[in-house]
Amino acid sequence: MASFRSRRPLAIMNVVVTGGAGFIGSHFLNLLVPRYPEHRFVNVDVLTYAANLMNLAPIAEAANYQFERVDIADRDAVDALFDRVQPDLVVHFAAESHVDRSIHSPDAFVRTNITGTFNLLEATRAQAQRRPVTFHHVSTDEVFGSLGPTGFFVETTPYDPSSPYSASKAASDHLVRAYHRTYGLPVRITNCSNNYGPCQFPEKLIPLMILNAAEGKPLPVYGEGTNVRDWLYVTDHCEAIWAVIQKGRLGETYNIGGRAEKKNIDVVHAICAAVAEETGRPVDALLGQIKYVEDRPGHDHRYAIDPAKVERECGFVPSETFESGLRKTVQFYLGNPDWVTQVRSGEYRAWIDRNYTRRS
Ligand code: NAD
Ligand code: TYD
Questions:
Q1: In whole angstroms, how far apart are CA 92 and each of 23, 200, 332?
Q2: Angstrom distance (rounded) from CA 230 to CA 322
Q3: Which residues contact 146 (CB under 8 A, 6 or more apart)?
Q4: Is residue 43 part of a domain?
Q5: Which residue of 134, 197, 224, 346 lies most exposed, with the fewest beta carbons within 10 A?
Q6: Is residue 114 part of a domain?
Q7: Which ligand ends up closest to the CA of 55?
Q8: Is 9 a member of any domain?
Q9: What angle do CA 132, 133, 138 make, to 5 degrees?
Q10: How many angstroms does the Cα of residue 158 sit away from the middle of ligand 2?
């Protein structure tokens, strides 16, 4: 086994954040860049359809923030980036993240989620021969498959992924763990439940339903609407990741969740109620937009996280309840029509291509 020098204390760090222009990664950067002016944060993102640099407006000009347009599936580009940046810490968010897309076009999921993670691990391993570097892998509870009506996912629950998305994330988790066991790479993994909040691409359940409700469009509920997800507000997830990076043990996995299980149909009802209150439209009209549609193939019935380990070892406590987080989320989508128009239009993509050429 290769030996790596012991970890430096969290003093001055070069932090590579992959996928920092996406939903969760942008919240992570917006929280940490101003909080740690002494650290340098490098956002590594290829800018897929799910990315939005507008989300990073609060930190775009910060002296300790920099953006690099790099495809993590491009091994040479990743190696060159790591040689330039010399990271002390890698926080890996970049992924293809939507289950429905993975059902229709799984190729990109294998390329980014598996090959991309492999490339980052190899680049981190090469750096680790020269300097201390730790790798934080952001993953999902979907790797565990589906629960029955009772019980919770714990860190030792066997992997049993159902979709190409969750299978590709499971593969990436296995690679990360293998690099710890085989090469002694200092890694940590977090598996989180469903996130929601401002700036999520409106293909996922909560933003899609908010916008469709407000625009008088159908609210497509898959199957019977009885599938259960465990919801966590996005900034609570970011704080949990940072708590694990600071306090979690190397080589360990931490499940992150906020003990907020809900049936999909109850989430849709709560969205209709919040949109009705915010817009003054009658809630019955919004509820009338609900349309039960064909179920998703391989649709996992229930996810539920037992977060006892991250609470006990890292002191994680979520700040938002589902009700308070949902209200903030509804207010964001109703209050930012320009953001919504921009992410839905091709104009933004054209702007990216004009302004950011890929590094390879
Ligand atoms: P997202 O789809 O909003 O953002 C993903 C980001 O990764 C985008 O900015 C995209 O441009 C970038 N990216 C994709 N392919 C890339 C590539 N080849 N090279 C460089 N960058 C690339 O995703 P998200 O919801 O912010 O999820 C972030 C991470 O958190 C993912 O790893 C996901 O599996 C995990 N996660 C998400 C949730 C959730 O509910 N959204 C829950 C648990 C875990
Ligand atoms: P989603 O936001 O895609 O997250 P995930 O599949 O990763 O859990 O979906 C959350 C739940 O909502 C899931 O059970 C599928 C369901 N769903 C619908 O019923 N209708 C929709 O239009 C979408 C996008 C999801």
A1: 13, 18, 26
A2: 10
A3: 160, 162, 300, 301, 302, 303
A4: yes
A5: 346
A6: yes
A7: 1
A8: no
A9: 160
A10: 23
**Tokens 């999921």 identify what position?**
109
Contact 154, 255 (CB under 8 A): yes
Q: Is residue 284 part of a domain?
A: no
Centre a 10 Å sphere on the Cβ of residue 13 and count the other Cβ atoms it contains.
Answer: 18
Tokens 């970890």 sit at which residue?
7
Whether 338 is catalytic is: no
Domain, as residue range, for 255? 14-196+232-259+299-319
Q: What is the pLDDT of residues 224-266, one digit of tens each?
A: 999 999 999 999 999 999 999 999 999 999 999 999 999 999 9
Task: Give this prediction's pTM.
Answer: 0.96
Query: Which of 30, 81, 93 is the pocket-test mutation for ligand 1 (most atoms within 8 Å of CB)?
Result: 93
Distance CA 32, CA 360 (A): 27
CATH number at residue 74: 3.40.50.720
Predicted confidence (pLDDT) per residue in 257-286, tens digit: 999 999 999 999 999 999 999 999 999 999
Would residue 345 be called left, alpha or beta, if left means φ above 0 and alpha means ψ between -120 and 50 degrees? Answer: beta
Q: Domain total for the chain?
A: 1
Proportion of the chain in helix, strand, coil states, percent, rounded to 5: 45, 15, 35
Mutate to test the pocket of ligand 2, among 169, 203, 205 (most ligand atoms within 8 A of CB): 205
Contact at 8 Å (CB) between 92 and 117? yes
Rounded to whole angstroms, how far apart are CA atoms 306 and 55? 31
Q: Which of 68, 88, 165, 233 is catalytic?
A: 165
